[in-house]
Known about the structure:
Blueprint: H1 3-21, E1 40-44, H2 51-60, E2 65-69, H3 81-92, E3 97-101, H4 109-118, E4 122-127, H5 130-140, E5 145-149, H6 155-161, H7 168-181, H8 185-189, H9 194-214, H10 219-230, E6 235-237, H11 239-245, H12 251-263, E7 267-270, H13 277-282, E8 285-289, H14 292-298, H15 306-323, E9 328-333, E10 339-346, E11 349-356, H16 363-380, E12 385-389, E13 394-400, E14 403-411, H17 412-419
Parallel strand pairs: 1-4, 1-5, 2-3, 3-4, 11-12, 12-14
Antiparallel strand pairs: 6-8, 7-8, 9-10, 10-11, 13-14
Amino acid sequence: MLSSSLQDTVETQKREMHARLAERYIERDLGTPIRDDELIKVIIGPRRCGKSFLAMHLLGQRGSRGYVNFDDERLADVANYDHLIAAVNAVYDNPRNLLLDEIQNLPRWELFVNRLQRQGLRLILTGSNAHLLSSELATHLTGRHLPINLFPFSFPETLRADPGPRTGPEMATQFRRYSEAGGYPEPLLRDMNREYYLRTLWDSVLYKDIVRRRRIRSAAGLDDLAGYLLANVAREYSLNRLTSVTRCRSVHTVAKYIGHLEEAFLFFSLPRFSYRVRETAAANRKIYCIDNGFVTARAVQFSPDTGRLAENAVAVALHKRALDGACEVYFWKDARQREVDFVVKEGRQVTQLIQVCWDMTDGDTRQREIRALLQAGDDLSCDRLLVLTAEADSEEEVAWFGKRGRIRLLPLWRWFNEQGGT
């Protein structure tokens, strides 16, 4: 690509950035405080979750600034990075602050970024591939970058997009809508068909970011696996079972494909808690989707299950906290199949056990959830026992076969607001 055409591309992207900066901005809840220092800011997360918009607003607070978006076919064949920087310098008058958007699309980007930082530029990067970015950052930029994890809107962020006083019942209704619609910003802030937008985004990530980038021969097998996982969010899976119910040829292929799906921020898995590392590694995991909107818009033969949608939303919030380094998250299950949805571990201590149960009015359901909490609390020496529900808000002293504990019942919407979405 000639430098003149490079300059035209950068100029066009500059106008696009200015147009985006004129749009409404919703303040994001970040688990990592962002300081105005020399560290490279690396915003990592799913496509279309708002990384570029956040980065532009961070960049907009600085004086001399420039912007390059590598998710642009006009930059797909850039070979001479000096020509690219020359184009940026010409358009932005030698900026000292530079945003490089979707940096993983640039070959040998880590070496390029290294050089720019050595030359004194202050950088903001965004990327949509967890493994690629984390491995390269750890290798080439150790101690010189600040990772910032960004997901689609949390529940508090969606409220920020539509502010106003709400009663408790109104908040419960709003949360239920959120648990079905998900938190992708564009369908929430613009007048568009949400389901079509999310189906298109799903296919784009699956085929552009995984099939094409990974050169996957059996796209049908990957699509089949992804669809099955969507229909079974918040459930355990084994590699053998997934091999038998999908068109994937082997356990090895299934494991590889799940890794790709997680790297592209479509899914994540939670391990089963055990103090023995080998047991944790060998046990089944539970699968969750990065956003409930995908589950309701794209899942094959999925009838909305309010309880599983609520559990998935809580899993996403806890997963975000774990990525930010605040905790580790597991699920718990004993030999008698009693199960606790989430085990929160901070350092060496299990600090909280969480059940998600939309409706606690049924007696059998209530007993099952409470007994599992008491048993897990006893086994893991944890007395902070929490049940997240649609409406219940109380504390209760409970007992079962000599085990006693105080259980907090809390509406889901209140828990999300108290967590700040992270």
